[in-house]
């Protein structure tokens, strides 16, 4: 992986360029999806409906199961299911 600083902005932000191998890109994407699922579940825990018993659902969008497509992302989805123990898993 190569990381290049493109520009430092006056407000303290910076723009970087990341050159990744296909394997690094897939790992980063899988990690990002898992973290997004976790963040969504944490946010959902803050939302309650008074007086109602609601299920905690975990939605896994289109899994992209096709010949030639890596399936490692399903491992991350499985880990999220184990970590969060939802009442229902929707796919």
What does this structure look like?
The chain is α+β, with helices and mostly antiparallel strands and 91 residues long. It has one domain (2-90). The protein has two helices and four strands; from the N terminus they run ββαβαβ. Strand 3, helix 2 and strand 4 form a beta-alpha-beta unit. It is flat, with a radius of gyration of 18 Å. The mean pLDDT is 82.
Key words describing this protein structure:
single chain, 91 residues, alpha+beta, two-stranded antiparallel sheet, two-stranded parallel sheet, flat
Strand fraction: 15-25%
Number of domains: 1
Write out the strand line-up for the largest beta sheet, numbering strands in chain order: 1-2
Q: In whole angstroms, how far apart are the ends?
A: 33 Å
Report Rg: 18 Å
Can you tell me the residue ranges where pLDDT is under 50 for at least 5 consecutive residues? none
Name the average pLDDT.
82
What count of helical segments does DSSP give? Answer: 2
Structural class: alpha+beta
Order of helices and strands: EEHEHE
Measured as a percent range, the helix fraction is 40-55%
Report the strand count: 4
The coarse silhouette is: flat
The largest pleated sheet is described as:
2 strands, antiparallel
């Amino acid at each position: 992986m190569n990381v290049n600083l493109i520009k430092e902005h006056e407000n303290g932000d910076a723009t970087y360029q990341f050159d990744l191998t296909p394997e690094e890109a897939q790992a980063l994407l899988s990690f990002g999806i898992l973290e997004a699922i976790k963040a969504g579940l944490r946010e959902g825990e803050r939302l309650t409906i008074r007086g109602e018993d609601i299920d905690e659902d975990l939605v896994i969008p289109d899994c992209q199961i096709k010949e030639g497509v890596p399936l490692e992302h399903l491992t991350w989805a499985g880990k999220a299911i184990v970590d969060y123990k939802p009442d229902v898993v929707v796919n």
